[in-house]
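Hi F.,

I've been meaning to write this up properly since the lab meeting, where we talked about keeping a consistent format for the predictions we share between groups. The idea is simple: the sequence comes first, exactly as it goes in, then the structure tokens exactly as they come out, then a line or two of notes. No screenshots and no reformatting. I'm using this chain as the first example so we have something concrete to point to.
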Amino acid sequence: MVQSPSHPDALVDTLTCLADATRLRLLRLLEQHELGVAELCDILQMPQSTVSRHLKLLNDRNWVVARRQGTNNLYRTILDELAAAPRQLWLLAREELAGSAAFKQDQLRLARLLSQRRTDAQAFFADAAEQWDKLREELYGRSFVLAAAMAMSPRDLVVADLGCGTASFLADLAPHARRVIGVDNSPAMLQTAAARTEGLANVELQQGDLEKLPLEDRGVDAALMLLVLTYLTDPRKAVVEMARILRPGGRAVVVDLLRHDRDDFRRQMGQSSLGFDPPDLEKLFTAAGLTNVSCRALPPEPQAKGPALFLATANKPS
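Output, unedited:
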């Protein structure tokens, strides 16, 4: 944790970090998203040597942390761990510079980068729609589907399958639920899902982004995400939306990839991240207002070729 500047040396350290426009821009970007050096160079329009030098200073003084993804480092801020005084100084600096031309330009380039990430994921699903079920089973097996279903008992529920894909799980769930709502942002996936669920009167399919769901507040008893979060540029928003649509006492269920180091796999699958560590998932759920959070690894199936999976569950307070 960055210490409170209660003596001159600590104060000088804090002011040093905030006394450079490039470092302020970096902190603002990394406060919003985890980004790699190449992405930061693109946004800031600066050479790698310059960006890396500033990142090293911020990292050495515990304003940012890094983790490996393949051959690259990804950076994010740890501003929530700052002592009160450094955090107050950062918030003041951010407010003063919010309207600056440099900050505005950075936001435009960040939005472009995040849009490209979404486009990459959508392109993958457009190409994979017809083969998705076979590919998913080959990579991850089928037992995770059963684990997710068991986590949502009893079955007489209104359930939202968020990122429903081709509706392979949704179609199996429909006979055991009062109503099932499938949401996906891929038209190709939804076309296959519509054909698969034709004739199921209690199934409703909607196109929409999981970071801004087209569903009403407190409208479902259970919300499910199967192999979805790794494709999202902002998983935090998706979990917040998941919590929003749950009724009090409702159940959230997530199955996704545990953190791994197979960057070639991530690129091949069009994913935005290398999976999640259970403590990070627990923080996302807790920050979204969910309680009774549980996250456990699922035993890998013998024939599964993809990374191992986890099952996470939580409840919306009654």
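Notes:
The chain is about 45% helix and 20% strand.
The first strand starts at residue 35 and ends at 36.

If this format works for you, I'll send the rest the same way.

G.
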